[in-house]
UniProtKB/TrEMBL annotation:
Name of the protein: Crp/Fnr family transcriptional regulator
Keyword Transcription regulation: yes
Residues annotated as domain HTH crp-type: 152-220
Annotated GO biological process: regulation of DNA-templated transcription
Pfam families on file: cNMP_binding, HTH_Crp_2
GO molecular function per UniProt: DNA binding
InterPro entries per the UniProt record, alphabetical: cNMP-bd_dom, cNMP-bd_dom_sf, HTH_CRP, RmlC-like_jellyroll, WH_DNA-bd_sf
């Protein structure tokens, strides 16, 4: 386990490698490896461990019985998932976690996290504080997706999503973490309709794109 690498992850901010190793030993952990398309966690599962992506990436997805898919998030190296369910302990997962590529995940057990009487070191408090911040940010991300898909038009959803990324990265040239099918799933639109609208926006001189790289050309016309 590369604890020096883990110290750079937000959920472990302010905890040095030596204390981090003690934290992991205190909580308990397991490392697993997955290939692209593997189901890491499935809707209906009850989990007691938080997942941390060491390498690769995974998608948080919702799949219904008719085969319709919606992507809620893409988690990459250094990010966490299932932390809310792990802390709730007895709640069933409402989503699937699927490997987006070959990835390595460490699962950190959370059963002791709310036992404050067992806290004897500052790094335990620091981890709990960091985790609360991460959960808050995840809630904001979910609210953000709801905002993106609130528009009734496909163009409105595209504009909302690309505008957010442009502001976040402070650049008109952005690279999104999704391919076309994944982007259509994330925005809850038909893939063909999404591709047609992107082509139309490019012809109108609003954007340029190649695969998952986009450039916003006309900032004024781009606003809804």
């Amino acid at each position: 386990m590369d604890f020096e690498f883990l110290t750079k992850i937000k959920v472990f901010k302010g905890i040095d490698a030596e204390d981090l190793e003690k934290l992991f030993d205190w909580l308990g952990y397991e490392i697993r490896r997955y290939s692209k398309g593997d189901i890491i966690l499935m809707a209906g599962d009850k989990v007691s461990s938080m997942g941390i992506v060491l390498t690769g990436s995974a998608n948080i997805e919702s799949n219904d019985v008719w085969g319709n898919k919606s992507i809620f998030d893409n988690v990459v190296s250094g990010q966490v998932f299932a932390e809310v369910y792990a802390c709730a302990n007895d709640e069933e997962l409402m989503v699937d976690v699927v490997a987006n590529e070959s990835c390595e995940i460490v699962f950190l057990k959370m059963s002791k996290i709310f036992d404050s009487e067992d806290y004897t070191a500052h790094y335990q408090d620091k981890f709990a504080s960091n985790l609360l911040k991460i959960m808050s940010l995840k809630n904001l991300n979910l609210s953000r997706k709801i905002y993106h898909v609130s528009s009734k038009s496909i163009r409105g959803r595209i504009v909302s999503y690309l505008s957010y990324l442009s502001r976040k990265l402070e650049s008109k040239i952005i690279e999104i973490p999704y391919n076309r099918q994944q982007l259509s799933d994330y925005l809850c639109v038909d893939r063909s309709a999404l591709s047609n609208e992107l082509s139309k926006m490019q012809r109108e001189g609003l954007i340029k794109y190649n695969k998952n790289k986009f450039e916003i050309i006309s900032e004024y016309d781009f606003e809804i």
